[in-house]
Amino acid sequence: MSKLRIGIVGCGAIGSSLARSIVKNFSKDAQLTALYDIVPEKSKKLSGVVSQGKSLAVSGLIQLIDRSDLVIEAASAKVSWEIARHVLKMGRLLMVMSVGGVVAHAEKLFELAKKHKTKAYIPSGAICGIDAIKASGIGKIKKVTLTTVKNPVSFKGVEYVEKQGIHLNNLKKDKILFFGCAKQAVKYFPQNINVAAVLSMAGIGMDKTRVKIIASPFAKKNVHEIQVEAEAGNIFSRVENVLHPDNPKTSYLAVLSAVAALKQILEPIKIGT
Fold it and tell me: Which end of the chain is more exposed for a tag (fewer CB within 10 A), N or C?
């Protein structure tokens, strides 16, 4: 059986971590065959780290898709839908990391995957309990609330925060930056709140899922609390995530979640819903 050819779009902290993991942990069943980044130097540099001799860096998205059986999007929410659309239209498997960029197109995502006889994978990311929420959704879910707490440094450069006139460097106590529906949370915090997109897709949708985002000067970890009221019972989960060493806006668990999803794809036995 031939190895699964994997291409990665986006060679930042997440894409680089996944590339190293594929080469180190999945060489028996998978092969990293292509890397692409809008900044060519990044893909070339990463190729030099994970590949001996042969350059994996390519000059365009279509070229990467052509060389891959599975494409992992690790770029940004601004471009994740366009990447997903091209990948599915070419009949390749897709894994999406920047879920915030595709959640508004969830129905179209499903249609494209079905039409072109392929699949799209969305890892759980930096939260837990997605399996229970999916199962609860078979019955009736009444309410879903996500509370996210991060250090102010995670929100630097967020346009929504700047427009509110919030001075992140001067915070002495917890500050609620946002409280509303997941659709607005994903819009205003595209780099910080992928978990809201995943949660919405697994549960009751973007309009009904409630999200509270808090900047805390005392936070040393990215904290996500989920409360669910459902016909099958109430669910409460809390994750205290270690920050990714190369990107404080991302939790390390989000990367490990993608690795676990890849493991599910490659292994014959799948655990969990």
Answer: N
